[in-house]
Automatic annotation (TrEMBL):
It comes from the Bacteria. Pfam families: FMN_red. Residues 8-155 form the NADPH-dependent FMN reductase-like domain. InterPro entries: Flavoprotein-like_sf, FMN_Rdtase-like_dom, NAD(P)H-dep_reductase. SUPFAM superfamilies: Flavoproteins. The lineage of its organism: Bacteria, Bacillati, Actinomycetota, Actinomycetes, Glycomycetales. GO terms for cellular component: cytosol. This is NAD(P)H-dependent FMN reductase.
Length: 202
């Protein structure tokens, strides 16, 4: 038996607001991933500062450090979980802008990255429409997005005093989505090594 390392997941929260419900969800996700035996690193857009995309600026100065740093973090991880608010039925412009910059790096740092999309909103739909919109650019730059997504409705009332999900039904739904995603990431991450080991034995 060969020892296997824990899966490494980057959790990117697209809201830095004080009291952000998406941040609360991202923190709950990190705790649940750790409980499942994975290593989860929580980051936010503030860790990857970039100006508004400007082709002339790119021509003069190249791709900004913030986008290069995200590309490096993607390389160091087995998957990317994005937890994002819905803005006007779509994704926050700041999130799209960051990935627009990342897409200027070739080959695409996002190509073949296994992604999982999540949202939280005080509203009744939980930001799900924003995730449907977010799939389009991310799949356009080669990400392999998990088919199932998680949206938390009425999120301003969904957390208990210790930051956990107050409704056990929400917790069970979140765990089911994470379990399905981890199964895929594990297969993608481990299978090439297993195949090489089998080939070496043959
Ligand atoms: C510009 C803007 C647009 C918004 N559009 C939506 C929307 O389409 N759907 C929705 O459910 N909430 C919408 N909201 C409300 C956000 O869901 C709410 O502010 C939420 O708390 C933002 O996430 P955060 O708490 O993680 O910052 C919008 C908020 C802003 C600032």
């Amino acid at each position: 038996m060969t020892a296997t390392r824990p899966l490494r997941l980057l959790v990117l929260c697209a809201s830095a607001r004080t009291g952000s419900v998406n941040r609360a969800l991202a923190e709950a996700v990190v705790r649940r991933l750790a409980a499942a035996g994975a290593e989860a690193d929580l980051t936010g857009l503030g860790d990857f500062p970039v100006p508004l995309y400007d082709a002339d600026l790119q021509g003069r100065e190249g791709v900004p450090e913030g986008a290069v740093r995200l590309a490096e973090r993607l390389r160091d991880h087995d998957g990317l979980v994005i937890v994002s608010p819905e803005y006007n039925y779509s994704m926050p412009g700041s999130l799209k802008n960051l990935f627009d910059w990342v897409s200027r790096i070739k080959p695409w740092p996002t190509a073949g990255v296994d992604g999982l999309l999540m949202s939280a909103s005080p509203g009744p739909v939980g930001g799900h429409r924003g995730l449907l919109a977010l799939r389009v650019p991310l799949e356009g730059i080669g990400m392999r997005l998990h088919p199932t997504m998680f949206s938390l409705a009425k999120a301003d009332k969904a957390f208990d005093a210790s930051g956990g999900l107050a409704d056990p039904g929400d917790g069970a739904r979140l765990d089911a989505v994470l379990d399905g995603y981890l199964t895929v990431v594990e297969a993608v991450t481990r299978y090439p090594a297993a195949r090489a080991a089998l080939a070496a034995r043959a």
